[in-house]
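If you are new to this repository, start here. Below is one unmodified record pulled from the training split, so you can see the exact layout before writing a loader.
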Amino acid sequence: MSSTSSDVNPPATGQPYPRREVQPMDPQLTTIQPGGGIIINLEMLWGRWRRFWLKTFRPGYVKKMESTRKGDFNPCPHDVLDPRDLKYHENQGGYYWEEADDPFAYRSRLPFAREGLAELFVLSTLFFGGAALLTGVILCGVVTGVLSYIGWLLVLTLVLFGMEIVWFFRNPQRAIPAGEGVIVSPADGTFDTIEEIAHHEYIGGPAIEIGIFLSIFNVHINRMPVAGKIIKLVYRPGKCLNALRPESTRLNERLEVYLQMPEPTNRPMLVQQITGAIARRIVCRLKPGDELTKGAQFGMIKLGSRTVIVFPQEEGLEILAKPGDKLKAGSTILAKYAESPTEASNEEA
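And here is the target side for that same chain:
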């Protein structure tokens, strides 16, 4: 398709889209990681022991944290003693702590994805620890000859896997482009597919769908493509096909984020987090009614995946990226809407 689409009119020329009502939370989304997993189970187990230890040996700390806790109900199936207990249930509302009262707020400022810190710790320990242990075995002369050469190759392999885990969970800072009509990429990766849709049910008219493939070497944190309100979330269990296959968009496990831009346009958009053959864990911290700024982080997909964005096709819409481009979440501009008459009149007023 051409980079500029000028032959399709919006639902009503110069008029905003209708405002959407916020929908209830999908009942399948009881945690921010609906697919479960070994690491989340280990963290839940550790949480039980940690809460026992805090109640038994640090009652003063528990009382202090309770005094600064906000919210009117417990969203978790366990006691909430400090912010760590909310990690997998922060999409349920209820209890929370202000940043100034949260002793663990620094974790969000680390150069690694907060949602992946447990995986980073466990997997890097396994790989680097295994490499160190095997190195010790070789240096102690337990294995010799050909076996020692094989051992050094295994050491190198384990180190490379460990470095990949560290690289995968990095969280680089991004400069967010300004502009109300600017759509930024919701994911790092390769601009893979683009499709014109004659009528999209949620958009309410013609739409553009762009697919982004994320390899295991890409940052996997997802960001908001525009500023807007979360209208609804839909979790769809499915397969784990190779994310390079186009049919993975329809068949793989995915989480759909339906959002709407603020007035005056009220443009609706859809972002899909999709698993792959390796990536089988979607993380989404959002809940219906949340309002986020453009480029804000809202989740991630762990270890190779796909992200899809769908947005209205309107007169004057300019697609600024093209298939094959390398995209950066929150900073690469995918498309831009021309200033509508409604926006212009509001600015003049």
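Two things worth knowing about this chain: The longest helix spans residues 117-139. The longest strand covers residues 189-200.
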